[in-house]
Amino acid sequence: TQLLEQSPQFLSIQEGENLTVYCNSSSVFSSLQWYRQEPGEGPVLLVTVVTGGEVKKLKRLTFQFGDARKDSSLHITAAQPGDTGLYLCAGALGSNYKLTFGKGTLLTVNP
Amino acid sequence: NAGVMQNPRHLVRRRGQEARLRCSPMKGHSHVYWYRQLPEEGLKFMVYLQKENIIDESGMPKERFSAEFPKEGPSILRIQQVVRGDSAAYFCASSPPSGSRETQYFGPGTRLLVL
Fold it and tell me: Smallest CA–CA separation between A69 and chain B, in Å?
């Protein structure tokens, strides 16, 4: 059983389009992190959200933490080929150091 | 300001050999975590260490696997008598001594292939 479910699993879009990917759980997390991972590399931290309902913006990326702290979404505006990668969500459950990861959403942005 | 460093980036071992994976945390970071990413699976927590202490090794297999973070030098993840099922990407992460341990910065990983 996957504690963090990410959807969609795969997403292929054209440059300039908007998209949203989701991270859902039935458990309450003290925080959620979003990472982007490129082939052959490690995950790169994009953001940490802590407060229920919190919204954080990072240029064209908008992250939202659900009110109940069970889910999160990542919205990308005007996607670019450089946004291509595997987007991972991770959360701390109970202990604040043992991160649980979803399997990720593999995003491809075609020029 | 170098990030988390791991070496080797790729490691090939035959069954029964030993694998040693090294991790140098970000400068000033004193918490180190190891995760394993198996094909088609998400990253899974293995062990959490501070200098000279293993804090939580609940995610690490009981046999053949060990980890250390000595007073001087990098953290080492050691796998003895490797088997094909050990083939995976092993990632190290670090976090600063104060602040949230949930915010972890990852290295590029070591891809272990067991023949």
Answer: 15
What 3-state DSSP class applies to B48? strand
Question: Could B102 and A30 be called an inter-chain contact, meaning their C-beta atoms sit closer than 8 Å?
Answer: yes
More confident call, B98 vs B92 = B92
Alpha-carbon distance A31 to nearest alpha carbon in chain B (angstroms): 8
pLDDT tens, position by position, A28-70: 998 899 999 998 899 999 999 989 999 999 999 999 999 999 9
Nearest Cα residue to B88 out of B23, B15, B22, B35: B35
Contact criterion met (CB < 8 Å) for B107 and A42: yes
Q: Please say if the pLDDT value at position B97 is more than 90.
A: no
DSSP class of residue A101 equals E
Query: For chain A, what is the radius of gyration of the CA atoms?
Result: 13
- Token representation of residue B103: 């915010």
Distances (CA, A) of A3 to A6, A71, A90, A92, A103: 10, 11, 10, 11, 10
